[in-house]
Amino acid sequence: MKRMPWLFCILAGWLLASVAAAHPWNVMCRYDNRVELVNNGETIATAAPVFFDPSWRSGRITKCVFNPKEMEIKETTAVQGNVHFTARLEAEGVNGETVRLRYALSVNEPVELNAFGVNFQFNNRFLFGGSYQIGDGVEQPFPLEKSEKTLLCREVMSDLTLRTVSGVISFHLLEPQRVTIQDERQWNTPVVSVRIELSSGDGKRWKAGQTGTVDMELSSLDGVALEKPALCTIRAGEDWIPLDAVMGVVPGSALDFSTMGFCDAPAGKHGRVIAKDGHFEFENLPGKPQRFYGVNLVGNSQMISHLEAEKLAERLWRLGYNSVRFHHHDGLLADRESVGATGLNAGNMDKLDYLFAELKKRGIYCTTDLYVSRTIDRKDLWPEEEGRLNFYTYKNLLPFNEKVWENWKAFSRNFLLHVNPYTGMSYAEDPAMSWICMVNEATYDIWGLDRLNELSRKAWTQGWNAWLLKKYGNWQERNRAHHVERPETIELLPKSTEMNAAELADFHQFVLETEQRLFGAMKAFVQEELGCKALFTSMNFRGLEPLSPLARKDLDFVDNHFYVDHPRFPSGTWGLPAVIPNQSVVRNGNVGGCREAVSRIFGKPFTISEFNYSAPGRYRGIGGILTGCVGALQDWNSVWRFAYAHANDCLFKPTVLKHFDMARDPLSQAADRASLCLFLRQDMKPLKNRIAMTVNQAANGREALRNPVDTLKAMALQTQVGVAFEDTAPNLSLSVAMADDAPQASAHIGTDVPTDKLHEMIHNLLQGNELQNSDTPLQTPGGQLTLLPQQDTMILDTERTAGGFGPAGTHIETHALDVDIMGTTATVWASSLDGLPLKQSRHILLTHLTDLQDSEMVYAEAERQTLLSWGELPYLVRNGQARLLLKIPQGQTVTVWALKTNGERMETLPVVQKAEGMELTLSVKGTHGAQMLYEVQVTQP
Fold it and tell me: What is the pLDDT of residue 700?
């Protein structure tokens, strides 16, 4: 009998298990007029009002006007041009099986729209194996496989029934309306949209003040309950224990990782950091790969006094970091009085110089960007203009505007050739400044170019016209090649949705060549004219489109960014309320960095210069373990947490949480201990196999027939994934073509290998190398890491670091440590501090992380997805317990101390000697308040 591909087996088993245990549905209304469909604790779909303009550019109506006094949002808006879209939601429970939702949607000005209504986005993993039914019609299956067909249905209806993996949910529209069901995997979005569209009564035209209503009932025989927003305030009590947070690290304590040898001072003693065979090395230590793990210092957290710089550098060294990224520094370093803000501010430059020297003295290597967010007066470039040029526009003008290009060169020259008086070297020549990104987050993917402002769009339009003229010679040949009727000079850059296949292929090539040309010019300037010997990168964000690897081919190393629980701001930019998913990364499979791993080019070093499991998300505790695991398994080379601090006011005294700052967050600081052990000390070993998307260097703008990014992302915990060029691909286990004319590839997506066959090929490859030795698809070789999504459980099992994550009631077994989690969801692990395996170690750090919030923190709902107020100190830690069995030999004396956040010992804990080892119970609630960290000392009699 032929074996079913492993993915289908998993899905089939999941479907059967889910059907056997149907659960009631919850319709949860959010403050920004979103609605979530939740079943058995998992968000199956999210709904929001939405509109699409004539080019099918979408806009969600989720920007809200928030009244902090009343903690209330009554309506949401979106603005496009001079048109204001407004949405109001009314919701009521009809009975135990039905909930009614009524959206009133309106516009204030006349506007033409392709669609206007409410969009439900279903996570497609809940629809695999399911079906949809219109009225009493025939059930239609949701396709398991991604195909060219995206539009599954578009017709007027009153009733729609969805049979999902989690149960059956039915939509009844009180007035028949057009419903579109669309599979969006074609655009690398893992959702199926069910869009209920209003009719304007006049084709696509909407009149000023016109209002439409989407009135629906959601029902299920399993039960449907309505939950409206209800304020949730975090207060001290039996569930939340105050924490006495202490900054810094006590020398010689269990938190002093300086003894692990991650830093070999001073930085540069072994020569420059170089790129060699896909790794970093020191030029005078050939053949010995080097890894780096560090933090971002952002804004004026880098601009501190000399005494503070010494204290901060010492702390970062003792925390175990061997690298620092200077970020959002260029605006502060620029002299605002100089033309184009290209001169240097002497006072701030002196502060940065001293901090850099102190870091270098301790063996900490640095990286930075030559452009991040330095704004300039428009009149410095165009005398007739007023106002400032923001950094988004600056980055978009850079490839085409000579004045912006010269401005970038001038600041880069002044910064890199500046001689640091405390090191005696310029940044261009100092080996401690090891990596330089030309421009932060300036990856010019075509979807981002659809959203350019007028000034940037004009520059790109001129560039596009010039590129087409060079290729085709005249506009008539261009139109013939593109099968279009456009004027001689294209006045406005067409959006990607307005281009046919021929135009789109050319546009991909135009963007590719633009990025190649820009980086080539920058590298030549910095390396040849300025004499800088650092390693160079750029395009350090997104870049998963088929031709992106070609744009990155000439980089010295590839860099990317990822975030889990990155906030969204429905009231505006970087203010409250802030919305985050706040859902388990284990249960929903959103392990940070797996998707970005695919952007690595085999043969080049790969780094993540920004990552975070962001506050106030409750899953920050597991973020350190998962990041350390993914980085180690994929054999990445450098990782930088974003960020240690954004401002200097939180560096030396406890301060309320912010989204990214570790200095404000004792929980994230504790979680990073796992990353350092797993990734930097290499407790977790790299995966053996490598599967690559193979790129033909002569692709000439052709899109891949199918882009296998999502397939490879799903394999990132079982095999190294990335990109290879067909003539340079090293040591690959399987190569998958991104273009149909890459003859060296083992498989060609869309030609000789259907997607389900690809899954089977990968599965067989892994089995053949004994990589998959468990009945779960989410276990790494040898069982180093196991994810059990249905149980919301993670198990970590390496020689020197072991433990896991799970809800209350979870039992975790590893070779050296057993854990029973009690009271609340927690991440618990033990790490050897003396480098010995845990069973033989004499010095061990135990970590028990539940959740940490500020006192009087206010959320809009019990699920804590909409933050309304940051609250105040002291920090509060969610109470919980964990019972541990550390499997050490009998006859030894074991002492366990609860630790302060700086590593200072507080009190000893009772230990029970058992035949299997040493047993103890950890509790967040201790004699001195909350505790998360513990030290174990083992001595022989």
Answer: 47
